Amino acid sequence: GGSPYGPPGGRGGQGDSPDTNVYVGGLPPHVDDQALRQMFAGYGDVSSCNVIKDKVTGMSRNFGFVNFSSPSMAQAAIQSMNGRMMEGKTLQVRLKGAPPSAPLGAGGPPGAPPWANRGPPGGPPGGPPGGPP
Q1: Are 27 and 93 in contact (CB under 8 A)?
Q2: Does residue 47 carry a pLDDT above 60?
Q3: Residues 65, 74: contact at Cβ < 8 Å?
């Protein structure tokens, strides 16, 4: 079976399927696109990759994205690289748009935000309809 949250319909474009686009966080600051590609090239065919940089300073923001040509390659990279230590940092590797997986023993996901169910909808009803003739 396919992924339940795949993109609806084929919209063409770059074929940026969520199943092949991998988020990589916790990168050392000197890692650039080329180094990122080399880190993940062993897991399959990297169709594109980019390290996100600060617009102002041009410095790495310590995360990036790697796009594989097939979902199984993306999964292999995630299984192998997620949680790996790199120069004192722990890499977070997951599908783009997937929630971060909680570390073991961290309990379940957090509940709904506090503003999710605050008070009944709508305000008090208006006054009596119509007025004096």
Answers
A1: no
A2: yes
A3: no
CA atoms in the 13 A half-sphere facing the CB of 67: 9
DSSP conformational letter for 6: P
> Mutual orientation of helices 33-40 and 71-81 as an angle, nearest 10°?
100
Q: How far is CA 62 from CA 24, 42, 119, in A?
A: 9, 21, 41
Cα gap 91→81, rounded to integer Å: 7
- The CA-to-CA distance between both ends of the chain, in Å, stands at 68
Amino acid, single-letter form, for residue 17:
S
Structure tokens at 55: 């617009």
CB contact at 8 A, 47 and 41? no
> Per-residue pLDDT tens for 52-111?
999 999 999 999 999 999 999 999 999 999 999 999 999 999 998 877 665 444 444 455
| Sequence-distant (≥ 6) Cβ neighbours of residue 84 within 8 angstroms | 90, 91, 93
- Rounded Cα–Cα distance for residues 4 and 6 (Å): 6
